[in-house]
Amino acid sequence: MNQAHTTTLVTGASRRIGRALAQACLARGERVVAHRRSADAVPEPLAAPVDAWCWDMLQPLDSLPAQDIDHLILSASLFERGHAWNALSADGGAASASAEERERFARHLQVNLLAPWELAVRLNARRPLRSVTMLLDTYLDRSFPGHAAYQVSRAAGAGLVRALAAELAPCRVNAVAPGTVLPSVRDPAQRAEQEDAIKARTLLGRIGAVDDVVDAAMYLRDAAYVTGEILRVDGGRFKL
Questions:
Q1: Do residues 73 and 131 make contact, with C-beta atoms less than 8 angstroms apart?
Q2: Cα–Cα distance measured from residue 232 to residue 240, given in angstroms and rounded to the nearest whole number
Q3: Where does the sequence pass through the membrane (predicted)?
Q4: Angle between helices 115-126 and 148-167 (to 10 degrees)
Q5: For residue 70, what pLDDT is reported?
Q6: How far is residue 226's CA from residue 59's CA, in Å, rounded to a whole number?
Q7: Global pTM?
Q8: pLDDT of the residue at 95
Q9: What integer is the mean pLDDT of 37-53?
Q10: Longest Cα pair distance anywhere in the chain, in angstroms?
């Protein structure tokens, strides 16, 4: 298909990796439908005009984008730190930490699992998609105290990729599971310390870049004979 007649929907396209993925599609001359949470959200500028589509993924999917979509890239996600379970009390009341954790699970499963599932299935039912590419996380392989809701939602996302690949075939469904490419702290000293710690936990001895993730996602999106696969882009971080 001529790239100029290809339309790609990128969720979470306002910033970070989602924005970079939208840029990559624009660079190929494609039409991009750029999702953001609400009309009030201010996206970072892109290199070319895009079609905006707003949906708060914590809410029901009331309507689909008006455009016919060829490729769906699922970049939007929710990440919240939670409680370490061995620190939870036996109290399960409405104001308890365990109740907060239950609500956190519901939010993560909605944004990271159920919303992507519904969007992909409904788009494909309206007009068959050529591909779905989902961004996961190397957290699908490991667990850390205080991150259970996020980790479980990502592990479930790996199952979703395989299920969608079977259910939506011949639409190809794959995922990229990045390691840390965008450190979470802004203080230069703390950032350097965090990056050094990450480098020490990778086989390649360095932190990755956003372009590494984008290249992997675009490869999977266009790989005509690859489906149901999860490509880890983490420098071998969790193989040590």
A1: no
A2: 14
A3: none
A4: 20
A5: 98
A6: 32
A7: 0.91
A8: 65
A9: 88
A10: 60
